Amino acid sequence: MFFQSLSSPIMGSRAAVFAIVFAIGCISYFSLKREPAWEDMGLAGLSIGIIWAIGHFFSFFTVQKATAVLLVGYCGFANAFFHTHWQNPVTALPWYGTLMEGRIIKIDSRTSVDSRARVKDEAIKHYVTLSNVKYLSGVEQDTNPLMRDVRVRLRYNDPKHYQVGQKIELRAMLRSISSPSFSHDYDQQFRAWFENINGAGYALSVGKVVEDGEGNNFRLKFYTILGQVQQRIQQTRQNIANVIMSQTGCQDCKAIEAILLAGETGLLAESVRQEFAASGLSHLLAVAGLHLASVMGVCVFVLRKGLACWPYAALHWPIKKIALITGFLLGGGYAVLTGLHVPVLRSYFMLAWIILALLVERPVLSLLRFGWAIGLLLIVWPELVRDVSFQMSFTAVLGLICGYQIIHHYEQNRYQHTPLWKRSWLAAEGRNLFFASFFAGMATLPVIAAHFGTFQPYFIIANLIAVPITSLWVLPWGILSLFLMVFGKASWALAMMGIGIKAIILLAHMVARLPGSVFHIPLMPEAVLWCAIGGVTLCCLGTRRLRLVGGIVLAGVIGVMAFQLPPNLLVSPDGRLVGLIDHKGLFIILGHDPYIEKRWMTGFALNSVQHFSSEEGGDTATRNQAFFPVGNAVGDKGQPWPEYLHCQSGGICRIFLDHFGMQGREILLYYEKKKREDPRPPALLNMEKANMKKACQKAALVLTLVAYREPCSAFVGQEINTISIRKSGALNIWFKSASLRLISDQQVRGMRPWVREPGQRGLPNLPLAASE
């Protein structure tokens, strides 16, 4: 039955099936907890080949089809395996500021409104990516150049007159890529592994150019030409942004115009970004497939209609193909102006297949072209299968194909019985955009909820209005304004573009103010995400029975999202930050790290964070108690802490689990405090030791965040210290009614080539010892 469904009319093309199976093979490899051995890889491939040969020899068609599917999945698994092991190893970085030199391969900047900026230019952060980095000071000065690249943030007073291909010298502080802040968090190390990034840091001195990149070497010439082109493009983008911001009118409208026409993302106010995110319109602020398709569509339409008005061209030239090729090239120019980001490149590649289908007069929404595009992308970049933009593009295209197959016959019959005067191009395009927004929005809904932890109930309604305005009004006027900027007459076109943007901003403001506009959902494990994508795939491409299975899978995913509870206790990867999650919000027991705290609040849909208002954990009266209840104290924002959390000034906290159904059990937390003379009397200290002995007997878990201290020598339960936390990574703890549930980052990610323990530096890069 399954193989009959693969050849059904709805599935359409074997290319799409094989591409999906190939992607499943890539997912299977990246989801493993341990790295497979080369011998196991060869044995598995040989076994599948033998089974396929037996089925082919004895004409067992079912076995032959099954092994063919397994073989495609094995190819995806092996492709991801070889791409992973093809990467360079991560090298240890120095712990101190080091003088180094490297060749610039990328220059980018990020504009942000930073209230901590001491000067105006400090809010604009400039970054350079350096390759062949060689240390010029310290014990590493005689080592070989790094095999991977490093990304350095330049100082605000650096002249920044650099070009790609130049070799610069500067002193910088480098750090390895950090581990996830909690289990199931975004894995930055995975992305850095495939982007050939060794680490990142910030400059301690102004850079100095030591080589201009000129010479007879082909690579140097290539870098020099690339740097000149990149500098010219960057200057053009800056000029476009300056022209836009010099106009009169709405400041937020001009900032969005700069995003859509020049890729300048740091000029928009944070409040407007939050309103766009709450209304489900944040994708309009990131140039991707929607913007490229709209720009190409407008260019093709205008060129084709313009050439059709010329009788000679209409009779003798292939105006359709000329318009398609010209629109494709103009779309490439628009992609260059907006920054050539990875989603833009991937969308441009997908649109190239659509243009090719139109040139050879083939169906555009074809599963054959969809399968080939997905397959080629994963063959070249198998790591894209874990990228959120790729997953959203995949599900959106599936939704469009499935949706247009459903309404195809209805539209044909309706068009045949519609009078000519009602067959308006504008109405047809508006109707197509309406259906495209609906189908793509419904298909990407599970992916958005699983990745970003938010669900916007009104996002479909908002997109049904905002997407047509963007495609039919905002971007056409934007293209015209880019053309008129050459002649200095773009003011009126930008003003017309601003009218549409102002309407979208008003729509986002209204939708964000509606009751229940955003529901926050704790981030899901990766397995739930794969189930959601699998359910969408079955609903879009399967037969009736497979669609029923897909619907059941999606219902299960929705149930998991609705009833999953966040952990009660969080420990950072380095063990220096401990947080307690309560119905009132996040309470930081130990440490302070703004980045990790923000990740915790975002990942578990928390609205507030509280810290101890006193460094010693309470006022003077409560310090002389053996264990004072923190619930009697207040945090830095004036809210009382949970009553089941009791702490003392010596660096010990007790979390009583009676509130969670574990009668008589508790968690002991030892953390380091500043050394000071204890003002408490000896009798109280002796009573504290007796209480600690009883607490150790009742403890279900002991967290020791001080390496030199042994709190419970006779404790026979579970104990976690600083060393084990640094080996296992971030720790999530749930307080269940029967027992504690602990999940570490190592349990989620396993021991893979891109995974490094917190504090693990990588392969040593020290010079060889001197020979006698």
TrEMBL record:
<feature type="transmembrane region" description="Helical">
    <location>
        <begin position="42"/>
        <end position="61"/>
    </location>
</feature>
<feature type="transmembrane region" description="Helical">
    <location>
        <begin position="68"/>
        <end position="86"/>
    </location>
</feature>
<feature type="transmembrane region" description="Helical">
    <location>
        <begin position="432"/>
        <end position="452"/>
    </location>
</feature>
<protein>
    <submittedName>
        <fullName>Competence protein</fullName>
    </submittedName>
</protein>
<feature type="transmembrane region" description="Helical">
    <location>
        <begin position="548"/>
        <end position="566"/>
    </location>
</feature>
<feature type="transmembrane region" description="Helical">
    <location>
        <begin position="458"/>
        <end position="480"/>
    </location>
</feature>
<feature type="domain" description="ComEC/Rec2-related protein">
    <location>
        <begin position="260"/>
        <end position="541"/>
    </location>
</feature>
<feature type="transmembrane region" description="Helical">
    <location>
        <begin position="492"/>
        <end position="512"/>
    </location>
</feature>
<feature type="transmembrane region" description="Helical">
    <location>
        <begin position="281"/>
        <end position="303"/>
    </location>
</feature>
<feature type="transmembrane region" description="Helical">
    <location>
        <begin position="518"/>
        <end position="541"/>
    </location>
</feature>
<feature type="transmembrane region" description="Helical">
    <location>
        <begin position="12"/>
        <end position="30"/>
    </location>
</feature>
<feature type="transmembrane region" description="Helical">
    <location>
        <begin position="315"/>
        <end position="337"/>
    </location>
</feature>
<dbReference type="InterPro" id="IPR052159">
    <property type="entry name" value="Competence_DNA_uptake"/>
</dbReference>
<keyword id="KW-1133">Transmembrane helix</keyword>
<keyword id="KW-0472">Membrane</keyword>
<dbReference type="GO" id="GO:0005886">
    <property type="term" value="C:plasma membrane"/>
</dbReference>
<feature type="transmembrane region" description="Helical">
    <location>
        <begin position="390"/>
        <end position="407"/>
    </location>
</feature>
<dbReference type="Pfam" id="PF03772">
    <property type="entry name" value="Competence"/>
</dbReference>
<keyword id="KW-0812">Transmembrane</keyword>
<keyword id="KW-1003">Cell membrane</keyword>
<dbReference type="InterPro" id="IPR004477">
    <property type="entry name" value="ComEC_N"/>
</dbReference>
